[in-house]
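Why should sequence recovery work at all? Because a backbone constrains its sequence more than one might expect. Tight turns favour small or flexible residues, buried strands favour hydrophobic ones, and helices have their own preferences. The token representation captures these environments compactly. In the example below, the structure is given first.
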């Protein structure tokens, strides 16, 4: 992991951009974090729109977590931002747009082509990044995962024992095979669902929640579209991580 010049934000948070091999990312640590007082960590997931586009929302989430004494970090997803284009993924996105513009149902074939290769490549990258984060003296764990492509969160919850809690956003297409993986998830879950999200199959989201094998899981459904999550719902998600990581 190679860090570029760091900056101290106005609320004392240390923001450091880095590269891990070819993967860019950002790490935010609270002002009080130190080698003698290491802090927990939340991995900030996000949609494949590029870190540049997502930065304002990611930084806001990082500030919220830092106020609770929790570090946060994110990495660029494969095929996004300044990373090399991924032709197969580009084609899957084109097929998805064509189906939605034509008002046609999105087929399982399109969903699988769009999501499964991304999960297969992104999850090992997240794990490699987690290795690097936990090697830093100011990061001590435990670790949570928050938001982003829900199928990536599901896979990480199954294969990564260092992640002890996850906050998931029911807002992305989910391959059928991921429902089977969801049954293997056992960590505490906090799931957000926007009831009027045009890009989300509400019944599929409810079925996925039902499939999760966790004994502690809660579904927080609010009226409004994809970007209309109310502030009190964001606060409840932050409280979930404070409870499990602190």
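From this structural description, the recovered sequence reads:
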């Amino acid at each position: 992991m190679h860090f570029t010049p760091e900056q101290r934000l106005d609320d004392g948070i240390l923001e450091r951009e880095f590269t891990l091999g070819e993967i860019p990312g950002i790490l935010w640590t609270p002002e009080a974090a130190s080698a003698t007082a290491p802090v927990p960590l939340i991995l900030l997931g996000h949609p494949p729109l590029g870190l540049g586009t997502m930065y304002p929302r990611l930084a806001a989430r990082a500030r919220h977590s830092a106020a609770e004494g929790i570090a946060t970090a994110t990495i660029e997803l494969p095929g996004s931002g300044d990373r090399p284009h991924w032709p197969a993924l580009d084609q899957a996105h084109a097929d998805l747009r064509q189906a939605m513009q034509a008002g046609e149902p999105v087929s399982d074939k399109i969903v699988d082509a769009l999501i499964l290769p991304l999960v297969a490549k992104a999850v090992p990258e997240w794990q490699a990044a987690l290795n690097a984060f936990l090697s830093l003296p100011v990061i001590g764990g435990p670790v949570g995962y928050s938001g982003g492509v829900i199928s990536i969160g599901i896979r990480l919850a199954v294969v990564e024992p260092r992640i002890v809690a996850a906050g998931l956003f029911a807002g992305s297409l989910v391959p059928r095979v991921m429902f089977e993986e969801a049954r293997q998830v056992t960590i505490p879950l906090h799931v957000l669902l926007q009831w009027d999200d045009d890009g989300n199959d509400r019944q599929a989201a409810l079925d996925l929640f039902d499939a999760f094998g966790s004994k502690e899981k809660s579904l927080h459904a609010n009226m409004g579209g994809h970007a209309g999550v109310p502030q009190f719902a964001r606060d409840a998600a932050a409280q979930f991580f404070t409870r499990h990581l602190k």
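A few observations help interpret the result. The mean pLDDT is 93.
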